Amino acid sequence: GRGLLILEEYAEEIKKITNINIDIYGFDSGSGLPKPKDYRDLPYHWKKGFFTMNEKNLRAKLKKANLIIGDIETTSKNFFSKYNPAPIGAIIHDFDFYSSTKVALSMLKEDGKFFLPRIYCYFDDVIGTETELYNDFTGERLAINEFNAENENIKISKSYHFAGRANEIWHHQIWMCHFLKHNEYNNFIGESNQQL
User: What's the pTM?
Assistant: First the structure.
């Protein structure tokens, strides 16, 4: 739950600057990682029970974030109808496994009204070390690649403006989700005068 608490802090700071309220939703099984399903979930790196949480303790510390407890396979199905969230502008993915990341990414296929036309996506487990050896054929990277192959009008791409800086590891963990058929995707947002 540490990530949710940090997101709450940032949301408060952003509100002070922009006067925009930010809603936060956190998904967690509540009981740590499940058993990896197969090699795509990297059982050489992840074990059942990793990252258990103290739900009561976390809820006592949260100020406004919505904590959604349960298997993402289940909680993803009614999230939009139950919470009717404001348009989503950023998603932090830290599901560790290929299987749960794949389910979470399927939520991007919901009605476009729930998303801004381009959203930032952070993927926690795409860089790693010489132990994880993340690659394009397992884990979060495989889930991203499959999502792109299966969806013609929604694409997840590396964030090249961050990668161009390449000063921090997290610059390589930020990707962009483009909703190519979003009714606001083509709205002009550039500088009104770009003449040199």
Answer: 0.93
